[in-house]
From TrEMBL:
<comment type="similarity">
    <text>Belongs to the ELO family.</text>
</comment>
<keyword id="KW-0444">Lipid biosynthesis</keyword>
<dbReference type="GO" id="GO:0005789">
    <property type="term" value="C:endoplasmic reticulum membrane"/>
</dbReference>
<dbReference type="GO" id="GO:0034625">
    <property type="term" value="P:fatty acid elongation, monounsaturated fatty acid"/>
</dbReference>
<dbReference type="GO" id="GO:0030148">
    <property type="term" value="P:sphingolipid biosynthetic process"/>
</dbReference>
<feature type="transmembrane region" description="Helical">
    <location>
        <begin position="129"/>
        <end position="148"/>
    </location>
</feature>
<keyword id="KW-0275">Fatty acid biosynthesis</keyword>
<dbReference type="GO" id="GO:0034626">
    <property type="term" value="P:fatty acid elongation, polyunsaturated fatty acid"/>
</dbReference>
<keyword id="KW-0443">Lipid metabolism</keyword>
<keyword id="KW-0472">Membrane</keyword>
<dbReference type="Pfam" id="PF01151">
    <property type="entry name" value="ELO"/>
</dbReference>
<feature type="transmembrane region" description="Helical">
    <location>
        <begin position="99"/>
        <end position="117"/>
    </location>
</feature>
<feature type="transmembrane region" description="Helical">
    <location>
        <begin position="6"/>
        <end position="26"/>
    </location>
</feature>
<dbReference type="InterPro" id="IPR002076">
    <property type="entry name" value="ELO_fam"/>
</dbReference>
<keyword id="KW-0812">Transmembrane</keyword>
<dbReference type="GO" id="GO:0042761">
    <property type="term" value="P:very long-chain fatty acid biosynthetic process"/>
</dbReference>
<dbReference type="GO" id="GO:0019367">
    <property type="term" value="P:fatty acid elongation, saturated fatty acid"/>
</dbReference>
Length: 162
């Protein structure tokens, strides 16, 4: 994967170590160390921490909102699938499910990009984009002609994934 060289992603060891250390500190070591110690005045550190968190989260939201907009535009472009079916007289592929899915996705994407740009709701778009990447790769191979049919053995798995 393209993230394999990213900080704290090369291996699961750092994240597991950090999580175990965090739990141990929060539940055991921290309270034990502070048992006979007066509380620290961390107001300045906490203020800097909060400002850094605000800046980081606003940046993340901005990036995710941008990605949500691209997803929304892509759902509009996806409507061409049906146009292509109509123009090629492939009416058997224009099922009620197909039409409802393609009509509903831009509406859902609009709501997401307009009212909820970013956050956990982007997971649906991420999964949908993953499936569509594979689906359009399949369509590309299928469109290259009969000599590529042997490479399309995985159609049933694509249908399952959808």
């Amino acid at each position: 994967p393209r993230t394999v060289d990213w900080f704290l992603v090369r291996s699961s060891i750092p994240v597991v170590t950090i999580i175990i250390s965090y739990i141990y500190f929060a539940q055991n070591l921290g309270p034990k160390l502070m048992k006979k110690h007066s509380p620290f005045d961390l107001s300045t550190i906490i203020m800097v921490y909060n400002i850094a968190q605000i800046m980081h989260n606003v940046w993340i939201l901005s990036e995710m909102a941008n990605v949500c907009w691209h997803y929304y535009i892509n759902k509009m472009i996806d409507l061409l699938d049906t146009v292509f079916f109509v123009l090629r007289k492939k009416n058997n592929q224009i099922t009620l499910l197909h039409v409802l899915h393609h009509a509903g996705m831009p509406a859902v994407a609009f709501i997401c990009v307009r009212y909820y740009p970013g956050g956990h709701g982007t997971l649906t778009g991420l999964l949908n984009s993953f499936v569509h990447s594979i689906m359009y790769f399949y369509y590309l191979l299928a469109g290259l002609g009969p000599s590529f049919k042997k490479y399309l053995w995985w159609k049933k798995y694509l249908t399952l994934l959808q």
